[in-house]
């Protein structure tokens, strides 16, 4: 969070000689380089039985006084020699401080509430002893100008929650700027990367070598000798294979409004929550923000709720999570077996008004009760996403797809040889090895998408809740993907070749804001697409797309841009037929001899050739033949499939293979002619007469 700090500019008067002040009665207008000494001046000590008041004021009305003590040493003990400093032009002003004994160096400044800008110094000594006294610089100051420092951009860019995620060894390019109220002449800019390294300038780069969470601070400082500055920060997560959980970066309200919900027309209100730390500050919190590399864990970032300490949910899987000793939740109790109750409940509940006719969000469940054994047959914590409409109708969205069955360990697990066998095995993802990545829970499900049909502009309540069942042991957690809680206006993730979700050239991509009641203006690469005014856009060309929309008297906004790419379609070139002579009509054929003909100028690095018995098999990429292949008929048609390395885009062609039998040549009589009158031994023979 950005904070502006107030400092002061020192304006030094220029004198041809010093007008120092010793401790003496009176009012003096002084600025640097003047000095303020005890009554014994620069080289002597003060006297006994002194009771003196000195007032020091600045030269100009827009200035205020600062006394910068280089040293201070007066008699201490039970009856000390004392200096009192007041924030004004006499001793009736507020007392800023009382000083005695060997204090050392310190500074005292007139405050902003002090309209005179003066400091009044009162010194009282006893009759028994005197010592060195003090030496102070007299400074005149003015208030700092306002400075607004701003972190502007980075490459890679921050995610939707404002966090930059990279891997160890990656380099981030940072850019910052600042606005100065008066003057930026002589301003300097600095970066602190949070790992001990720094840099200067508005545009810098830094390589982060070690996994961890780093707060990068950009600071703009003006030329004021007092050092007036402002700072802005951005968080960098340098990720190894393990998921990271942070509980300080976002408030619960920010987790809902800025991390979970991604809709420019979202109306979210009445956010309430409960976990261990809200019941008793000494208990852990089951709420956190998670971040991962997006490779070892399915979601890059989002909201995590646990039935224990959410800060321990990140990897590696080094210890059993069994934290918590607080109350359960009555809504979870309804999901448990009769007689069982819940413990250690964590929930977040909020109201929202959807703009589209459905809501969706992505999540997965993880648990310590995935033990590769009998626990999975009998024990499961519980969680629910309880959606309630304005009429009070409640629906649990945390269910196995196509059913009303809650997602529980006992309902989703592999067959480990136990009596219960497996249950909905296709929805179980994997176990986490001991001391392995990416999370501390022993197992997790595949990602699910919660879905509900809703009525636009009707207020709903949703409660996201998880709790331990029966006892407080073996915690569970639910991870909800950032930005996936779509209330309308979200076009989804980028569709790119690098992300692996790009479609083939010639295909159609349907974009839908899901805000049917709004008027839309669609853009491609920043240019308005004429005639496209509805919630749905059919895309056939690559580009950057977004929509502006307006619901009259309700809201207006724009979707986040979405990048759409298409894969190039390969062309399967015509391949020559293969023919070999055979005595039996059955032979082996090296089908790969046609690879180069089918590829043509296309690279074998980018495209792969497979061979199939039927055209449909080639289209569906099933039943690929092993080469060499032995024919079953002669001639026989072979279908070739040419596809990119992801097998997303393809084309097919065909050729025949033939194992031709050798012909039988019958004996024929010789051809003879009588020579003509020339008797030259040359004549014309009809060889075709021998064919029959």
From TrEMBL:
The keyword Isomerase does not apply. The keyword Secreted does not apply. InterPro entries: Choice_anch_L, Ig-like_fold, PKD/Chitinase_dom, PKD_dom, PKD_dom_sf, Sperma_CUB_dom_sf. Keywords: Signal. It comes from the Bacteria. Residues 1-18 form the signal peptide. Residues 181-243 form the PKD domain. This is PKD domain-containing protein. It comes from Winogradskyella arenosi.
């Amino acid at each position: 969070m950005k904070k502006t700090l107030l400092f002061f500019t020192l304006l030094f008067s220029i004198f041809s000689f010093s007008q120092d002040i010793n401790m003496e009665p009176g009012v003096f207008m002084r600025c640097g380089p003047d000095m303020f000494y005890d009554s014994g001046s620069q080289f002597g000590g003060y006297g006994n039985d002194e009771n003196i008041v000195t007032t020091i004021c600045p030269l100009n009305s827009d200035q205020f006084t600062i006394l910068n003590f280089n040293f201070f040493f007066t008699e201490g003990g039970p009856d000390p020699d004392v200096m009192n400093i007041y924030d004004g032009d006499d001793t009736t002003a507020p007392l800023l401080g009382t000083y005695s004994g060997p204090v050392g160096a310190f500074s005292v400044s007139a405050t902003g509430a002090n309209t005179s800008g003066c400091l009044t110094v009162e010194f009282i000594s006893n009759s028994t002893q005197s010592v060195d006294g003090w030496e102070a610089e007299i400074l005149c100051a003015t208030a700092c100008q306002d400075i607004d420092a701003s972190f502007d951009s980075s490459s890679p860019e921050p995610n939707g929650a404002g966090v930059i995620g990279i891997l160890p060894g990656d380099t981030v390019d940072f850019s910052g700027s600042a606005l100065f109220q008066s003057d930026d002449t002589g301003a300097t800019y600095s970066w602190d990367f949070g790992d001990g390294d720094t840099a200067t300038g508005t545009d810098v780069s830094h390589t982060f070598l070690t996994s961890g969470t780093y707060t990068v601070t950009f600071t703009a400082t003006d030329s004021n000798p007092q050092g007036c500055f402002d700072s802005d920060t951005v968080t960098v997560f340098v990720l190894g294979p393990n998921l990271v959980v942070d509980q300080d970066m976002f408030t619960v309200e920010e987790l809902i409004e800025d991390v979970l919900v991604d809709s420019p027309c979202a109306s979210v209100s009445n956010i309430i929550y409960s976990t261990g730390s809200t019941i008793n500050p000494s208990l852990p919190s089951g709420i956190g923000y998670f971040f991962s590399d997006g490779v070892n864990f399915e979601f890059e970032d989002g909201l995590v709720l646990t039935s224990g300490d959410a800060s321990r949910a990140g990897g590696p899987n080094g210890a059993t999570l069994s934290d918590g000793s607080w109350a359960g939740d009555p809504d979870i109790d309804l999901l448990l077996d009769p007689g069982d109750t819940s413990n250690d409940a964590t929930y977040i509940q909020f109201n929202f008004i959807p703009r589209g006719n459905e809501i969706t969000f992505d999540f997965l469940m993880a648990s310590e009760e995935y033990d590769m054994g009998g626990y999975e047959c009998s024990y499961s914590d519980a969680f629910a996403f309880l959606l309630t409409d304005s009429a009070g109708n409640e629906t649990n969205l945390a269910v196995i797809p196509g059913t009303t069955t809650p997602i529980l360990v006992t309902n989703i697990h592999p067959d480990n040889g136990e009596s219960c066998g497996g249950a909905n095995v296709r929805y179980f993802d994997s176990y986490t090895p001991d001391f392995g990545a990416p999370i501390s829970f022993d197992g997790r499900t595949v990602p699910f998408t919660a879905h509900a049909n809703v009525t636009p502009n009707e207020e709903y309540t949703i409660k996201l809740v998880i709790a331990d069942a029966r006892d407080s042991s073996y915690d569970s957690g639910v991870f909800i993907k950032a930005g996936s809680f779509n209330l309308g206006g979200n076009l989804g993730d980028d569709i790119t070749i690098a992300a692996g979700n790009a479609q083939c050239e010639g295909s159609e991509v349907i974009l839908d804001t899901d805000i049917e009641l709004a008027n839309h203006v669609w853009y491609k690469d920043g240019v308005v697409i004429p005639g496209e005014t509805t919630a749905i856009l059919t895309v056939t060309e690559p580009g950057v797309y977004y929509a502006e929309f307006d619901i009259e008297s309700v809201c207006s906004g724009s979707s986040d841009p979405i990048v759409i790419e298409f894969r190039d379609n390969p062309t399967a070139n015509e391949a020559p037929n293969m023919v070999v002579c055979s005595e039996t009509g059955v032979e082996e054929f090296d089908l790969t001899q046609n690879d180069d003909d089918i590829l043509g100028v296309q690279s074998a690095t980018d495209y792969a050739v497979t061979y199939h018995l039927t055209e449909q098999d080639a289209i569906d990429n099933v039943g690929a033949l092993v080469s060499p292949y032995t024919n079953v008929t002669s001639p026989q048609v072979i279908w070739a499939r040419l596809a990119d390395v992801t097998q997303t885009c393809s084309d097919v062609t065909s050729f025949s293979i033939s194992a031709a039998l050798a012909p039988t040549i019958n004996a024929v009589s010789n051809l003879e002619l009588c020579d003509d009158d020339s008797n030259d031994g040359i004549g014309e023979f009809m060889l075709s007469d021998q064919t029959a």
